[in-house]
Amino acid sequence: MMAFGENLSPDFDWGAVKSYVEFVQVVQERFPSWAWALDDPELGPLLREAASSEEWSPAVFESQLKATRWWNDRTAAQREWDIFVNTAGEAEVQDRIAKAATELRTKASALGVTIGDDDAVTEMATRMLRDGWSDAEITANLASLDPNKPGDLTAARTMINGIMSDYMVSVDEATAADFARKLVTGEMTGAGITEYARNLARQR
Q: Quick one: which of 43, 45, 47, 99 has the most CB atoms within 10 Å?
């Protein structure tokens, strides 16, 4: 975050900051990453108050900013993305979304799932970027989709069926699907599935 007054001339007349245009000038010069928020119903008044007085140090502005609903209703990743979307060029934003969409399609193909049409992929890619999904979260979100072609999920189902068959037990489709998702996300292991099947066999 840029320090207040960093780009202003030493003889800047703070008492003359009265018009909206002057507020915009001060905000753009003192903290350009927040200039987009001047028209925000919550952040706008805060920025105009900060721009009206040289008494507002960076620490004061930051403490006031962190007390807003805008700040507290968002995670760190969401705040970073929302600032990026409002300060970067449209081409840069779309490029980042396109790269995320390509990553999602590649991982979806490996899992054996289909996200949907281009709009659905773009929507998921945007959520992925805004929420700051980790690799594990990307896999978990994709694994929540039903597999419709060969991939890691169908391979996991095959492994589960094989383990159950070895112990002459079975699980319903919903349980098998849940176990498959947990296997590909690392929440369960083959050893855990085997132990589950062994316990079922003991209960017969």
A: 47
- Residue 27, domain member (yes or no): yes
Q: Which domain holds residue 108?
A: 88-143
66 alpha carbon, distance to own chain's centre = 20
Same-domain check for residues 35 and 61: yes
Give the orientation angle of helix 118-131 with respect to helix 90-111, to 10 degrees: 100
H helix runs in the chain, sequence order? 20-30, 43-51, 58-65, 69-72, 76-87, 90-111, 118-131, 135-143, 152-166, 173-185, 190-202
The H or E element that residue 88 is part of is none
CA–CA separation, 71 and 202 (whole Å): 54
Average pLDDT over every residue of 167-190: 94
Q: What is the pLDDT of residues 88-129, one digit of tens each?
A: 999 999 999 999 999 999 999 999 999 999 999 999 999 999
pLDDT tier, 136 (very low <50, low <70, confident <90, very high otherwise): very high
> How many structural domains comprise the chain?
3
Tokens 């507002």 found at: 56
Q: Which of 134, 73, 144, 133 is nearest to 108 (CA)?
A: 144
- Dist. CA 133–CA 125, nearest whole Å: 10
